[in-house]
């Protein structure tokens, strides 16, 4: 039998992906959080990239360290195929994997959005996020999830991205969901999923606000943020 330890950070969306997938598979795992600004020595010794998540996989023959969230999620899917989180069809799987990569580029834009220190930079990243939201709107169906009724790995990838806006929405109107009704429904369905809710601690929102303060984020000053402009 394997044992899993997920090395984490409280705000990392990539950690959330792995935690969601582990929960969807019904797998017990230990979670160890670290401070990325003061990384412990043991972490540096086992993390080739110096990033989270790491999945420590313990088996009878010893421990193996997996890094990169996509690799971790695919490994869990391979080893624990029930319930399936990827389509059975190879072409459909490839399509989903492409959208998962798209989700990573969305997170890069969200990082720019949350760390922007002036209105011009904020608007540039707002437009980038909005453009991706509109592209997703064009491929989403009736839901409730990305590919219909079944929750999949692609949903686990996007759920942490939309979670940011639970906090952002209380600061200013970014217009990301104004003209994206399918995306709004998808976001709501993901937010209600038990695995998604459990992927962060109860103080996630407070921690995110603290992160914004420490980075002097312009998002905290709604007077200089966009006022709901929906056009890209």
Quote the CATH topology of the largest domain.
Glutathione S-transferase Yfyf (Class Pi), Chain A, domain 2
User: How many individual β-strands?
Assistant: 4
Number of helices: 9
Low-confidence spans: 223-232
CATH domain class of the largest domain: Mainly Alpha
User: Rg to the nearest angstrom?
Assistant: 18 Å
How far apart are the first and last residues' alpha carbons, in Å? 50 Å
Q: Can you name the CATH architecture of the largest domain?
A: Up-down Bundle
**Mean pLDDT across all amino acids:** 94
Structural class: alpha+beta
**Form type:** globular
Major sheet details: 4 strands, mixed
Level of helix content?
40-55%
Oligomer: single chain
Kindly estimate the percentage of residues that lie in beta strands according to DSSP.
5-15%
What is the H-and-E element order? EHEHEEHHHHHHH
Number of domains: 2
């Amino acid at each position: 039998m394997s044992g899993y330890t997920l090395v984490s950070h409280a705000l990392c969306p990539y950690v959330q992906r792995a935690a969601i997938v582990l929960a969807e598979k019904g797998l017990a795992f230990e979670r160890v959080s670290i401070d990325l600004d003061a990384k412990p020595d043991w972490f540096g010794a086992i993390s080739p990239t110096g990033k989270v998540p790491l999945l420590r996989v313990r088996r009878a023959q010893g421990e193996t360290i997996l890094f990169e969230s996509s690799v971790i999620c695919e490994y869990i899917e391979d080893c624990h195929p029930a319930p399936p989180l990827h389509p059975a069809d190879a072409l459909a799987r490839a399509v989903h994997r492409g959208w998962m990569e798209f989700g990573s580029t969305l997170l890069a834009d969200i990082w720019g959005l949350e760390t922007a220190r002036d209105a011009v930079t904020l608007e540039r990243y707002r437009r980038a996020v909005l453009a991706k939201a509109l592209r997703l709107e064009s491929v989403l169906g009736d839901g409730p999830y990305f590919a219909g009724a079944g929750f999949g790995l692609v949903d686990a990838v996007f759920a942490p991205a939309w979670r940011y806006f639970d906090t952002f929405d209380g600061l200013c109107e970014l217009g990301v969901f104004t003209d994206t009704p399918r995306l709004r429904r998808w976001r709501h369905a993901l937010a209600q999923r038990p695995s998604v809710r459990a992927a962060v601690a109860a103080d996630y929102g407070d921690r995110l606000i603290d992160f914004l303060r420490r980075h002097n984020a312009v998002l905290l000053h709604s007077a200089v943020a966009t006022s709901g402009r929906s056009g890209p």
